[in-house]
Amino acid sequence: MAEFLLIHGSCHGAWCWRDLIPALAALGHTARAIDLPAHGADTTPATEATLDLYADRILAAIDGPLTLVGHSAAGYPITLAAERAPEKIARLVYLCAYVPVPGMSMIDMRRAGPRQLLGNAVRAAPDGVTYTVDPARIRDHFYQDCSGEIVAYAAAHLCPEPILPQSTPLPALTRWPGVEKHYIRCEQDQTIPPEYQVTMAKDFPDACVTSLPTSHSPFFSAPGLLAERLGRIASGG
Does domain 3-235 have CATH number 3.40.50.2300? Predict the structure, then answer.
């Protein structure tokens, strides 16, 4: 059975994997989730959050090779972690996530997409340190196929997102290309355009790119289906 480390995306925390972890356990796998700095229960000030610190936090949570799953914006820190210590990672799974282009920040990549689905739903704080998502828009963008209970649970846990890590370009990648990589596209995604997900995964082997008929948050809307998909990926099936 496989071991997974789950990394959340923007404004989320380890809490967002609450339904996926038991679904993976039911299949015999081991799964853990961590809070990136300044997210969830982590007390790092948002002013101190950096992309380097995110990668360091991920690597500190890994003892031996495992399957590293990154959702959405987590595509950047999982890539940097794999670049720094590929021996710690058996494979990367980009779950409707950004696949970084060296020299471009995540914000650069979002702006380069074919459509700007978030529109004016994102609001920068006056100090320019963080941004938040309009609470009235979170269901439409993140959880349109989720229950009311899940939307309420998520709304109570979402946090401001530090801007600096997402405005930091990734350096040249020399070791990351050798790491096994998979992409799971979400066909009903209203945050990252599904067609942009196809573009970002275009250099992955065809067998390593699959789709789910879900929103941006399959860990809530289809945890069993996502667990099965991750299990197949980890087993080479």
Answer: no
